[in-house]
């Protein structure tokens, strides 16, 4: 029988959701042209219910057409990457694990870059070509990594998967460098994209991200109890009735699909899936029934704040969001690593 105390409490949902909503309102209202938060909320509220926006409120088009879709996409991307990181850290029992550990992020990036260089597009959705290629290469990368790991280790052990993933990422990075060398006219576009950027995001992008998060992310959250069992070791988890191989495959497939969608829309954004679950774990503890939902909110909040910094720090210039997340994430990770080492030696 499930213990209700293991799950996320209503008041905890309210706190995390409240912080995320406040951050969302702040990020939509701030930018090169600041709009009061009250006016921002009025614009969004009136647009939802299709009521006239007062003439006294300036720049509603900036909010509705530029910032709102962008911030929504940023929040969904941050939530997705953080959820993937938390799931992979639990699955592989490695605090340094995230989507990039398996090489899936690198594979998705390769697919997206090929789509950019070859100009692969679909008439109905301009970004669909990049998305399809990113997801396809993410899944192909997963198949390659699992096949190689299976050949080396029938049990698909954690260390083998991580080793193959790191080697595969290095191999893909060399291919990306080769593509950039032979596509000089695309260097600027590819370089900015690989640093991560959600500028120009649309509500179509947001809808795709939402569907991906609800489908792939929902399956990951449903496997939270099984991920808890991995903490005691794969053999012990198997002895208490967990189908270790099935859980590994299901979670890895969902992580690959979710990362593929995020990479196709926002490019390569590092450290979100690595650092955010660590920070959340300090608050919620290691229980994945609490950790994963909290990681969704925390990831959205973290990436929205990083995107805000990217937009306003060098205004009117804009930094790639991946640069900001890597800078902030590296500092936070060093702090987390240092404090955890001190506690372990205390």
Explain how this protein is built.
With 346 residues, this protein is mostly helical. It has a single domain, classed as ABC transporter involved in vitamin B12 uptake, BtuC (Orthogonal Bundle). 74% of the residues lie in helices and 0% in strands. Helix 3 runs antiparallel to helix 11. The longest helix is centred in the N-terminal third of the chain and has 33 residues, at 60-92. The model has no long low-confidence stretch (mean pLDDT 86).
Overview in brief:
The protein is an all-alpha fold and 346 residues long. It has helices at 10-29, 37-48, 60-92, 104-118, 128-152, 158-181, 187-194, 203-222, 224-230, 234-239, 244-266, 272-284, 288-312, 321-345.
